[in-house]
Amino acid sequence: MGRSISPVAEHDTVCPMSRRVAFFAVFAVIAALPVLTWWIVGDVSEDGAEDIMFRAPELPAAVDVIVVFGAVALVVCGLALIMTPAGRGHVGRREWLAMLPLLLLGLFVGFAARVLTARVGGANIGGGLLLFAAPVIVPLLIILSGVLWRRIGNSD
Question: What are the beta bridge partners of residue 51?
């Protein structure tokens, strides 16, 4: 009896996008976020310091640029795809709420990697604190995201 008022049905007629493509874009953003955070934070080493907790992988400058460009491209393209009308039809507020812990996890991992690989004069106290916090924070964020995803699945 007339047209469907569902936002998903309306958007699918404009630009069909499967739910699988929308969630691939979401997880591309989540996967690229630690690399992007690593790049944005930059080197936090002290001048002239020699002590290092973990050695960062040494990549040639060209590879470094390609990896960062790839991460930026994944985040920008993924967000652009999600923000289209068709993407918004598949990724709503509840899904964003469930993805928020994973986005925070990506930020934490990128920042922690920079702190753990910083050259310091003496003890890397920040790196030590992050090593103690990571076994609590990482599983907590993953479990929180899983619980929120399960709630979304049960509410449909």
Answer: 120
